Automatic annotation (TrEMBL):
Residues 120-227 form the XdhC Rossmann domain. Residues 13-77 form the XdhC- CoxI domain. It comes from the Bacteria. It comes from Actinocatenispora sera. InterPro entries: MoCofactor_Util/Proc, XdhC_CoxI, XdhC_Rossmann_dom. This is Xanthine dehydrogenase accessory factor.
Length: 291
């Protein structure tokens, strides 16, 4: 059993990058993959790790991009032909890859999306309490000076140019912006922002659920609770970055869909360029066309 994707996953999580964890859960000889072999697949189709030979990896690459797009896990069954005596699993996504050198594998594809990140602006007791409570419910803290995109921004400065801070948070794409202020002062600050009515729907002032909070920890709890409510029921999304455009092509020999990348086997015939799941298909096509 291997864990080849662990170091890569640590780097991806640290940068808030979406990816797919691919793990071989069943393998039938003579496939080169073993149960427990794993890899990570990025949004551009790059694979880091091992989940089988080039043909099997190609099938994993294509299916992983679908799982990442849909944000849903997938059990992928890769068979050398449709009559392969590999026990069926209801609900699995089946791919027949005629280029496999025999055997069959099942790979579990699990999208790993960035955890919601909260940027807390200010050094007040409420701000410090939000920073303490947020990680307890799975929220990550984003640097106040930028870096990773924040799902939510909490402004607990109790003064300063709060209107400018709100505008910047909205412009950066935060789906939740919470202003710690009284209802009267908050209304005055929002009037200074110049935001549209649509943009103002993302701004919560006073920030936090109405739980009768009085102390700084209670107010912080109300704010974190409001962020969680928006994530679970309010449609607040976690920015995962725009996926890079991915080019796909159909192997003219075996009919498999392949992701075109720097390492994709290819062949130029006249003015056309063809892409293949592996060197075997490329060589067969080259022999066919006399290239």
């Amino acid at each position: 059993m291997t864990d080849r994707g662990s170091s890569a996953e640590q780097r991806l999580r640290a940068t808030g990058t979406a990816y797919v964890r691919a793990t071989v859960v069943r393998a039938q000889p003579p496939t080169s993959a073993l149960p427990g072999d794993s890899a990570v697949v990025l949004a551009d189709g790059t694979i880091d790790g091992f989940v089988g030979g080039q043909c099997a990896s190609g099938s994993v690459r294509v299916a992983a991009l679908t799982a990442l797009r849909d944000r849903e896990p997938m059990l992928l069954r890769i068979l050398p032909d449709s009559s392969s005596p590999f026990p069926d699993v209801p609900g699995a996504h089946l791919v027949v890859n005629p280029c496999l050198s025999g055997g069959a594998i099942e790979v579990f594809l699990e999208p790993q999306l960035p955890a919601p990140a909260v940027r807390v602006v200010g050094g007040s007791p409420i701000a410090r309490a939000v920073r303490q409570i947020a990680p307890l419910v799975g929220l990550e803290l984003a640097d106040e000076d930028g870096g990773r995109a924040a799902t939510a921004v909490v402004i607990a400065t109790h003064g300063g140019d709060e209107a400018a801070t709100i505008r910047a948070a909205v412009a950066d794409g935060a789906g939740y912006v919470g202003l710690v202020a009284s209802q009267r002062r908050g209304a005055a600050v929002l009037a200074e922002t110049g935001l549209t009515e649509t943009e103002l729907t993302r701004v919560h002032s006073p920030a936090g659920l109405a739980i009768g909070a009085r102390s700084a920890p209670e107010i912080a709890l109300a704010i974190v609770g409001e962020i969680v409510r928006e994530l679970r029921t309010g449609g607040l999304d976690v920015p995962a970055g725009e996926p890079a455009p991915v080019r796909q092509a159909v192997d003219p020999v075996c009919g498999m869909t392949v992701v075109v990348g720097a390492d994709t086997p290819r062949l130029s015939v006249g003015d056309e360029e063809f892409f293949f799941c592996g060197p075997g298909c490329r060589d067969r096509y080259a022999a066919k066309v006399g290239a």
